[in-house]
Amino acid sequence: xxxxxxxxxxxxxxxxxxxxxxxxxxxxxxxxxxxxxxxxxxxxxxxxxxxxxxxxxxxxxxxxxxxxxxxxxxxxxxxxxxxxxxxxxxxxxxxxxxxxxxxxxxxxxxxxxxxxxxxxxxxxxxxxxxxxxxxxxxxxxxxxxxxxxxxxxxxxxxxxxxxxxxxxxxxxxxxxxxxxxxxxxxxxxxxxxxxxxxxxxxxxxxxxxxxxxxxxxxxxxxxxxxxxxxxxxxxxxxxxxxxxxxxxxxxxxxxxxxxxxxxxxxxxxxxxxxxxxxxxxxxxxxxxxxxxxxxxxxxxxxxxxxxxxxxxxxxxxxxxxxxxxxxxxxxxxxxxxxxxxxxxxxxxxxxxxxxxxxxxxxxxxxxx
Length: 368
Description:
The protein has 11 helices and 9 strands. It has helices at about 5-10, 35-50, 60-75, 80-145, 150-200, 210-225, 240-250, 250-265, 290-310, 335-350, 365; strands spanning about 20-25, 25-30, 230-240, 275, 280-290, 310-315, 315-320, 320-330, 355-360. The strands form 3 sheets. Strands 4-5-3-8-9 form a 5-stranded mixed sheet, with helices on both faces. A two-stranded antiparallel sheet has the order 1-2. A hairpin with a 2-residue loop joins strand 6 and strand 7 (about 315-320). It starts with a helix and ends with a helix. The relative contact order is 0.08.
């Protein structure tokens, strides 16, 4: 069985041996996991990790439903029935998702168009006023060339009155326009910031999301290739997180995730440190300029803080632990191999008792 399937199965904490399964290399595994079933599991799990908070489909409630689909597949339920229900959900969800994105785009486009209309109207008005001033200026030039002092006085007054009036209107309009533009720009800036945060941040925990993690991996990989500075990666997840959800409910599970991110940001507080949520209860930390020894020391600091903490939510007092895998980027290693070694180290921590950190051997990627 592929590692990603084993890892996905493990997060459900389902007793396969008790329910007719047999233990595999990494613990008890379900019997007869077909490629079709495993593929559908992968699709649903991936989709569950990239949900949008849209009207009518709260992320938490939607993820609970997708979790039920996966549990049914893992317990050897009817694949065709699960696939049919998932198709129905996907069709409805995609329609609402598209409507949500389109509505957000239309609102943003409306604000920009208002700004464009204001500027276009102002420029048109300015062109008219400039044309009128030029007309009076030409007449003033003609008056200068005549010998009539009365004509010169008359045209001078007309030009001065027109010029002063138009400049006053310009200043007044500019003041009014700037207030309006500033207001619209602030709205646009706010929407752009929110859109950027939506694209970069995990909606629940405010940690960076998987997309941002992938981008940072690429950036730091290029820097490492040019400068040869150490670069370490830490993959971690919450031990028995599914049991927390099953025992206390998903709202408590969400609370635990958010509290863990607070601890992560407290421990990994350097500006260069990258804290990202890359899965349900799985997180990744990129540590520039860190050797594995330095990363391991930080991991021990993190585990100590998590072990010692008591997280209080209403009447509940919660404690939990985390398991960690660490890998340092090796010369000539690809990003995928670097991440895979950290994942395998995390997998080793989970399979050897949890609540611990494992450093991936450097030679592992050379053997693969």
